[in-house]
Amino acid sequence: MAGEAPIAPDPAPVMGLRxxxxxxxxxxxxxxxxxxxxxxxxxxxxxxxARVTDLPLREFAEYPALSDRGLLVNSEAFAWHxxxxxxxxxxxxxxxxxxxxxxxxxxxxxxxxxxxxxxHWIRRVATQTEGFDALLMPTVAITAPPVAAFAxxxxxxxxxxxxxxxxxxxxxxxxxxxxxxxxPPGAAPVGLMVVGEHGGDRRLLAVARGxxxxxxxx
Length: 218
Hints:
Blueprint: E1 18-22, H1 32-47, E2 51-55, H2 63-67, H3 71-88, H4 94-101, H5 108-129, E3 134-138, H6 153-172, E4 177-181, E5 191-195, H7 201-216
Parallel strand pairs: 1-2, 1-3
Antiparallel strand pairs: 3-5, 4-5
Helix pairs in contact: 3-4
């Protein structure tokens, strides 16, 4: 995307890495298998010499109100899809279309205010994460449910919210992230999300490669 030549940075040594674990919102309602795999990954990194620190990060509790049913995302999605919906709306998945349609009534004033509120929130979170090489959290709060679990709309929206939640917060923060597998052999996939700073992709890749090597050596 940046037009740069792809490179694979050398893994950053895990010894001494400063890794923060947000305690607010991102660890809520974890499936037991996810919570167990995440706790073991954090413990393994501590044993490898990383400085794993719990962070309150209470600012994350503000995310649901800021995201407000996708006010920002859905207004931008609707602006892109509006003409296509008018021509071929019947070809959209009904659930996907309903989420895009949330953006139809949003005013320009509301959109501009939310952009400003988001920028302020990003700055406040940044002051709390200064000095850390990365943040750690589960990539997804639950393991993949069977397709049949999404048959009813109520369950679809509940499960979809849990599946998207953690990655959506980091996306809203405008940060980069890498996910690494941490499930025990033979178990359903569980991801460890390693989160870097805005624009810090290259440093994050080095940190993630070091974390991956340390976890693989368990």
